[in-house]
TrEMBL record:
Residue ranges constituting the CENP-V/GFA domain according to the UniProt record: 12-125
Key words of the record: Lyase, Metal-binding, Zinc
Protein name: GFA family protein
Cited PANTHER family: CENP-V_GFA DOMAIN-CONTAINING PROTEIN-RELATED (PTHR33337:SF40), GFA DOMAIN-CONTAINING PROTEIN (PTHR33337)
Sequence intervals crossing the membrane: none
Native source organism of the sequence: Streptomyces bambusae
Superkingdom to which the source organism belongs: Bacteria
Length: 133
């Protein structure tokens, strides 16, 4: 008998808008949150992006792999070279990778628990409450 895999660690699949870029992530999701920093706003074209992190060794690309753009000297964003969808963010040397909740299709069990960079958030949208315990 093997114990059932906890639902939270079941591998999840994600994709960009055009579908050329596909991936799976597995392992425990860490810190789902939104971010309204200037980089997230300009890159996404929207008022914020939404993120959750997974162990880097649990990430697998299938099909195309992302193109990368460094937004900081040691931190880069991964996006689809065909459609431009923002799908992930990776710090140099990190052991985890942040993927967008959007690329994952906004799984209902991954609800943002906080919002980063509230100081640069647009004033016309409610902010995500900090529900970390
Ligand atoms: Zn694409
Ligand atoms: Zn951001």
């Amino acid at each position: 008998m093997t114990s059932p895999t906890p639902a939270s660690t079941t591998p999840r699949s994600g994709a960009c808008q055009c579908g050329k870029l596909r991936f799976t992530v597995s392992g425990e999701p860490d810190y789902p949150h939104t971010c309204s920093c200037g980089h997230c706003q300009r890159l996404s074209g929207g008022p914020m992006m939404s993120w959750v992190s997974f162990p880097l060794d649990g990430l697998a690309w299938s099909g195309a792999e992302p193109s990368w753009h460094y937004t900081w000297p040691d931190s880069r964003r991964g996006f689809c070279p065909a459609c431009g969808s923002q799908v992930c963010a990776l710090d140099d040397g990190a052991t985890s990778i942040a993927v967008t909740l959007s690329a994952l299709g906004n799984p209902p069990d991954l609800v943002p628990v906080n919002q980063s960079f509230r100081e640069t958030a647009v004033p016309w949208l409610p902010q995500v409450p900090d529900t970390r315990s």
